[in-house]
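2024-03-11 09:14:02 DEBUG pipeline.ingest accepted 1 chain
2024-03-11 09:14:02 DEBUG pipeline.ingest length=206
2024-03-11 09:14:03 DEBUG pipeline.predict start
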Amino acid sequence: MENIKDDGFSLECLRAVQGIPSSYLQYYYSRAAKLKHQKEDEKSRAQVCMEIEEQLLTLYSNEELVEKPALLDKRGGHKYSLAAVSLIDSIANDKRDVHVVNILNRGTLPFMEAGDAVEVAAVVGKDGAEPLPVEPIENDHIISLMRIVKAYERFTVEAAHTGSETAAMNALLAHPLVGDWEKAQACFQEMKQAHKDYLPQFWSAE
């Protein structure tokens, strides 16, 4: 990923996980290095993105703009528009070509729950997406990581719907980047207070 400082993965790491990790998994497998980068950077990635978006909105306000701004390449995800248009084309014109999409699992990956959203290759046409068969996955590391990240997502959804602080804390404790009670609790309470106007479900019982 162009927007991630690439520390790579050692051969020992690849042999251990028996897979080819996405660049984003550097945040899991190289947490200390990633944290060091962020502390050394003059601005956080969020601050950089906010500045880029403000500049892009100014550029887009020019009705005579007919070329993609070079600045967009620094935003990350700048090629998603191509994927989106291609997907729309497949649905609208019933092209039934293959896209990588997020769909309900429904047995595609037997080790995940039926209602889980999974990202897999699928044939896309006017009737939606039909997942392609996935070869059996016997890698316990990958299966375990997918399950724990999905558990974090389920806890997060539960917390958002119910205002349960227990669910929110379980989400943070389950996530591979957190797992520390005191830090998670302090972070959650600070964010809950800072965004109080948008999180009434966490305050209604108080």
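2024-03-11 09:14:41 DEBUG pipeline.report The mean pLDDT is 92.
2024-03-11 09:14:41 DEBUG pipeline.predict end
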